[in-house]
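Lay summary. Proteins are chains of building blocks that fold into shapes, and those shapes determine what they do. In this project we predict the shape from the chain. Here is one chain we studied, written as its sequence of building blocks.
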Amino acid sequence: QVQLVESGGGLVQPGGSLRLSCEASGFTSDYYAIGWFRKAKDKDSESISCINNVDNSTHYADSVKGRFTISRDNAKNTVYLQMNNLRVEDTAIYYCAVGPPQHTSLIVRRGGVAGGLDVWGKGVLVTVSS
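And here is the predicted shape, written in a compact code that computers can read:
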């Protein structure tokens, strides 16, 4: 059974940086992507980034491209989201989730609603405020 545990959320000023971590365990297949998704108050969920386990390709929504970087440490079974130049509108609960590679990459590139994913973490709150 796949389990995901996020960490690293917190309060940061506009222009600041945070790094989120997603520790994953329990995979029985190599065919998946791990992504980061967020849900702000009174807004739909948004797919923002993912890394494909099959070919290590990475994908980003336009809203975070150039500011956020996804990476992985296989030895630690952890996926990271480095978030730089944070904006007030980045305030949200951030979740990592696992899904089929093609579907996950597609919703991320579209910045679409986070759906059709298999396993979710519990989420961490990121607050960007002065």
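What the prediction tells us: Helices lie at 101-110.
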